[in-house]
Amino acid sequence: MAHIAFVGLGVMGWPMARHLTAAGHEVRVFNRTAEKAARFAAAYGATPCTTVAQAAEGVDALITCVGNDDDVRQVTEGADGGFTTLPDGALFIDHSTASAALAKALAARHPRLNCIDAPVSGGQAGAEAGQLAIMCGGDADAIEAARPILDCYGRRVVRIGPSGHGQLAKMSNQIAIAGLVQALAESLHFAKKAGLDTAALLDAIGQGAAQSWQMDNRARTMVEGRFDFGFAVDLMRKDLGLVLEEARSNGASLPVAALVDQFYADVQKMGGNRDDTSSLIRRLS
Amino acid sequence: MAHIAFVGLGVMGWPMARHLTAAGHEVRVFNRTAEKAARFAAAYGATPCTTVAQAAEGVDALITCVGNDDDVRQVTEGADGGFTTLPDGALFIDHSTASAALAKALAARHPRLNCIDAPVSGGQAGAEAGQLAIMCGGDADAIEAARPILDCYGRRVVRIGPSGHGQLAKMSNQIAIAGLVQALAESLHFAKKAGLDTAALLDAIGQGAAQSWQMDNRARTMVEGRFDFGFAVDLMRKDLGLVLEEARSNGASLPVAALVDQFYADVQKMGGNRDDTSSLIRRLS
Amino acid sequence: MAHIAFVGLGVMGWPMARHLTAAGHEVRVFNRTAEKAARFAAAYGATPCTTVAQAAEGVDALITCVGNDDDVRQVTEGADGGFTTLPDGALFIDHSTASAALAKALAARHPRLNCIDAPVSGGQAGAEAGQLAIMCGGDADAIEAARPILDCYGRRVVRIGPSGHGQLAKMSNQIAIAGLVQALAESLHFAKKAGLDTAALLDAIGQGAAQSWQMDNRARTMVEGRFDFGFAVDLMRKDLGLVLEEARSNGASLPVAALVDQFYADVQKMGGNRDDTSSLIRRLS
Amino acid sequence: MAHIAFVGLGVMGWPMARHLTAAGHEVRVFNRTAEKAARFAAAYGATPCTTVAQAAEGVDALITCVGNDDDVRQVTEGADGGFTTLPDGALFIDHSTASAALAKALAARHPRLNCIDAPVSGGQAGAEAGQLAIMCGGDADAIEAARPILDCYGRRVVRIGPSGHGQLAKMSNQIAIAGLVQALAESLHFAKKAGLDTAALLDAIGQGAAQSWQMDNRARTMVEGRFDFGFAVDLMRKDLGLVLEEARSNGASLPVAALVDQFYADVQKMGGNRDDTSSLIRRLS
Question: CA neighbours within 13 Å on the CB side: how many for C142?
Answer without folding.
Answer: 28
